[in-house]
Design a protein that fits this description.
- The structure is a single chain.
- The protein has about 350 residues and is α/β, with parallel strands linked by helices.
- The protein has two domains: about 80 residues, 5' to 3' exonuclease, C-terminal subdomain (DNA polymerase, domain 1, Orthogonal Bundle), CATH 1.10.150.20; about 240 residues, P-loop containing nucleotide triphosphate hydrolases (Rossmann fold, 3-Layer(aba) Sandwich).
- Helix content is about 45%, strand content about 20%.
- The chain is built from 14 helices and 13 strands.
- Strands 5-4-6-7-3-10-11-12-13 form a nine-stranded mixed β-sheet, sandwiched between helices.
- α4 crosses α5, α11 runs parallel beside α13 and α13 packs parallel to α14.
- It is globular and about 70 Å long.
- The termini are far apart.
Length: about 350
């Protein structure tokens, strides 16, 4: 009998520990002070559907999103922060986390080497260049390659294409897929395309991508082609430049958050301008100013090379030297020079 009682006690003790752990894990937004079902719904509609998103928000933003008072908003944020471990991480912990980073192949070994293995997830990769330099061609190639298994340079995932310049061509996707021996119909089904008509619409579509991921869609690539086109048309003249830059800054940070939270590779194309004060060398420069330059993780300049080739030059990267490589765009897609 003693043995049976001790076993029962052990079982009860284990169950209580499990339930207490479960309770800690299941701390919901509605458990925050001053947050009922209606307030939680308002917060979720405004994009604050996790404790982390609330913990890193400012009181003013929470007030605007939920309609609560500033004192209550501060209490909500403080409680959310206390429930999360928002401290520092050691370098070796971050290194271990980076083992989950995915590298998408471009189709060219030289281009992959330039990028340190391919287009990286949890990062923003921007390619800028004049028309015909290969920006959209690379986007089509990546939309196919992301569906390959990881051992072949893919992510076994889906792609989302935010089209601001009407550049997406399903015929090109079909051509690349068939050249690689893939089922073109299945490849096309796994690419979600949305046409954006102004900068606000473009920003809303990024929120929609997050909703798709939360619904279970295995999205591993987001293409925005192009990043600045609609901002350039919506804001004209120097008088609107500050407003434009503030808005693009919010957009860049929303993209960074999406990339890091869901381990998504984000590929951005960008337009260029010609600097009139450059008398020697290439006057081509990406638009968007310092906001875009500082916001993206990898910045690559594409231009036309000799005999129909393309040249990619690494302009900025956290850990990759400024180097160049050549590649070609053929009917089969992006390939190395012979």
């Amino acid at each position: 009998m003693k043995t049976e009682i001790s076993l029962e006690e052990i079982k009860e003790d284990l169950e209580s520990k499990k339930s207490s752990k479960k309770e800690k894990k299941e701390f919901a937004i509605t458990d925050l002070p001053g947050v009922g079902a209606a307030t939680a719904e308002k917060l979720k509609e405004a994009g604050f559907d996790t404790l982390l998103s609330i913990a890193v928000a400012s009181p003013g933003v929470i007030v605007e999103a939920s309609g609560v008072g500033e004192a209550v908003a501060r209490k909500i944020i403080q409680t959310a922060r206390s429930k999360l471990n928002l401290g520092f991480e050691s370098g070796d912990e971050i290194l271990r986390k980076r083992e989950n980073i995915i590298k998408l192949t471009t189709g060219s070994k030289a281009f992959d080497a330039l990028l340190g293995g391919g287009v990286e997830s949890s990062a923003l990769t921007e390619c800028y260049g004049a028309f015909g330099s290969g920006k959209s061609s690379l986007a089509h190639q990546l939309a196919v390659n992301v569906q390959l298994p990881r051992e072949k340079g893919g992510a076994s995932g889906q792609a989302v294409w935010v089209d601001t310049e009407s550049t997406f061509r399903p015929e090109r996707i079909k051509q690349i897929a068939e050249a690689a021996g893939l089922n073109s119909e299945e490849i096309l089904k796994n690419i979600k395309v949305a046409r954006a008509f102004n900068s606000d619409h473009q920003m809303i579509l990024i929120d929609k991508v997050e909703e798709l991921i939360k619904e279970g869609a295995p999205i591993k690539l987001l293409v925005v082609d192009s990043l600045m086109s609609l901002f350039r048309s919506d804001f004209t003249g120097r008088g609107q430049l500050a407003d434009r830059q503030q808005k693009i800054n919010r957009h860049i940070h929303a993209l960074l958050k999406l990339a890091e939270m869901y381990n998504v590779a984000i590929y951005l194309t960008n337009q260029v301008m010609s600097r009139p004060d450059v008398f020697f060398g290439d006057p081509t420069e990406a638009i968007g100013g310092h906001i875009v330059a500082h916001g993206v993780t990898y910045r690559i300049y594409l231009r036309k090379g000799k005999k129909g080739s393309r040249v990619a030059r690494m302009i900025d990267a956290p850990h990759i030297a400024d180097t160049e490589c050549c590649f070609v765009i053929t009917e089969k897609g992006i390939n190395d020079l012979e």
